[in-house]
Amino acid sequence: MAEGGALKGHMARALRQVRRYLEAVDAVVEVADARAPFTSRSPQLAALMEGRLHLLVLSRGDLADPATTRAWVDWFSSQGIEPYVGEGPGDARLVSRLRRRLARAPAAFKPRVLVAGLPNVGKSTLLNSLAGRRRARVGAQPGVTRGKQWVDLGSFWLMDTPGVLPPHLGGTRRLVLGALGLVGPELAGPEEIAAFLLKRLGGAPAFRQALGRWGVEGPRLPAGVPGQEPLGPGQGGEPPGAAHGPGPGQPAAGRPPAGGGAAGADGRALAQVVLEQVARQRGLLGPGGQPDIHRAAAVLVAAFRAGELGRFSLEHPRMLAGPGQGA
Ligand SMILES: Nc1nc2c(ncn2[C@@H]2O[C@H](COP(=O)(O)OP(=O)(O)OP(=O)(O)O)[C@@H](O)[C@H]2O)c(=O)[nH]1
Ligand SMILES: [Mg+2]
């Protein structure tokens, strides 16, 4: 795992590279995470598209709530972006649809296509699926791809790029990306991610049932959370954990009430009690038999990332602050 500083330098270089390569390409396949398609997109990329064919692949659709993913597909279509969903690494249906589409990309010669997106969203995995064999190195942690790589796929060229992080990772964005595993623990630690997940998904019955299967019964998780954080350009600016989302499937009810921070006092106290139970149930105990909260948080976060708790989305288009946001 790269250290924060080294990773930052790597990101600045990566963004310069993506900028330079964009000048020479006919189309871009952007990859984002289906569980949070708004926050896991690269804000810099949209500004650099300049009329090129722009396809958006929502990866890890196999881990997201299917109805929420369908809502995102409709929303992106309405924004003039062509959305595709990947239902796991090597999704054959996705691969054949993308191959056909990219072969038809407007281009003077054989189309040159760039694969871009945040670190660890699945860009190299997608390239390997399109190539039909392993051409690029993949890995479960951000920052695996370092250099450029053009691959000749017969009817088009494809280039893998290193993931580029948004310049501002304030508040909720940092926690969402941490929950998805798109930023490492140096930027978002397991305890604050766990508190964020409990606050955002705690109102979803399926999430409560999943915790129940782990032997976590109380305290009462927030049921009908009264408001939710609107998604929008300002979403990175709130204090850490200012999200107040009910999770998918619940109607928007405007802005969150003042002071309702996800990892605020309430959120942390709730997380503490839940994590203590997780620790006891899993036998994660410290020296004096004390529940090991840190390890319990890491276990919960890892289970969420791997889909072991079920298929959950962290963002729904109805959380968007207004029409046209984030396009
Ligand atoms: N469950 C699931 N996992 C996926 C999917 N796509 C990719 N992954 C996993 O996500 C992890 C990251 O994949 P990579 O392809 O290395 O990601 P990347 O975007 O190239 O990452 P960097 O090179 O670090 O920017 C790997 O462990 C993949 O197996 C998917 O659709 N579903
Ligand atoms: Mg890669």
TrEMBL record:
From the Swiss-Prot or TrEMBL record, state where the protein is found.
Answer: Cytoplasm
Bias (Gly residues) ranges: 233-247
Cite a single Pfam family from the UniProt record. Answer: MMR_HSR1
Name the Gene3D superfamilies on file: 1.10.1580.10, P-loop containing nucleotide triphosphate hydrolases
**Where does the record place the region Disordered?**
218-265
UniProt keywords, alphabetically? Cytoplasm, GTP-binding, Nucleotide-binding
The domain of life is Bacteria
One GO cellular component this record assigns the protein to is: cytoplasm
Q: Where does GTP bind?
A: 120-125, 163
| Chain ranges of the G domain | 112-166
Q: Please provide the Gene Ontology terms (biological process) for this protein.
A: translation
Under Gene Ontology molecular function, one entry of this record is: GTPase activity
InterPro entries for this protein: GTP-bd, GTP-bd_ortho_bundle_sf, GTPase_MTG1, P-loop_NTPase
- Function of the protein: Required for a late step of 50S ribosomal subunit assembly. Has GTPase activity.
Tell me the protein family, please. Answer: Belongs to the TRAFAC class YlqF/YawG GTPase family. MTG1 subfamily.
Q: What is this protein called in UniProt?
A: Ribosome biogenesis GTPase A
